Amino acid sequence: WNLSPRKILEDGPVIPVLVIEELERAVDLARALVRGGIRVLEITLRSDVALEAIQRIRCEVPEALVGAGTVTSAADLEAVVAAGGSFAISPGLSTSLLRAASQGEIPLIPGIATASELMQGLELGYDTFKFFPAEASGGISMLRALAGPFPGVRFCPTGGITGENYLDYLALETVTCVGGSWIVPGQFLADRDWEGITLLVRQTLAAASTT
Ligand code: 3PG
Prior knowledge:
Belongs to the KHG/KDPG aldolase family. Homotrimer. α3 links the parallel β2 (40-44) and β3. This protein has helices spanning 5-10, 26-36, 50-60, 74-83, 95-103, 115-123, 139-147, 166-170, 186-190, 194-209, and strands spanning 14-18, 40-44, 65-69, 88-89, 108-109, 111-112, 128-131, 154-157, 178-180. The strands form three sheets. Strands 3-2-1-9 form a four-stranded parallel beta sheet. It has a three-stranded parallel beta sheet with strand order 6-7-8. It is an alpha/beta fold. It has a single domain, classed as TIM Barrel. It is built from ten helices and nine strands. The structure holds 3-phosphoglyceric acid. Residues 17, 44, 69-70, 158-161, 179-182 line the site of 3-phosphoglyceric acid (3PG). 3-phosphoglyceric acid (3PG) is lined by residues 17, 44, 69-70, 158-161, 179-182.
């Protein structure tokens, strides 16, 4: 892996946003996703076991590239590096987080929802962003509007992406991949239906490859 934010997005076209509440399910879930064809996994820091889940997946599922989501501070970023995370994704951006990441060891994909935030990111050397919360921030028409003044920027829209709209997002020139929790339905996880998850991933990727 030659890791840059752009490369991580290019491995998509779908990054699952995973909230792991039960540690013992993390490895099985990661294996199910990898079997389906998804290698880049975002574990959000929104649960107590997130960092440990990253550690375990890193050790036990070497085919996966596991990183952290909901990284909102330089301290979060440090914790992710210590856990062995390969990248970090943030819902937003702050000067201190972007500075810490550009001096740090792993790539950061910061979040933006406006032209001004995007310009702040560009100023600090970033050209690849999460667009968050995608649906609530204007969705596809907002991304089309941003593509005018910022044609070289690439996005991973996340927040409100579903099986019904992800192909429309992927059809946009500036969208390299989409992120979301929809790819692992809660019931499948509760039922430990790993084969079901693998099948869903295969179907999702197959539909994306024909567009
Ligand atoms: C995130 O953390 O990126 C979002 O909460 C995921 O949004 P979704 O649940 O609407 O996919």
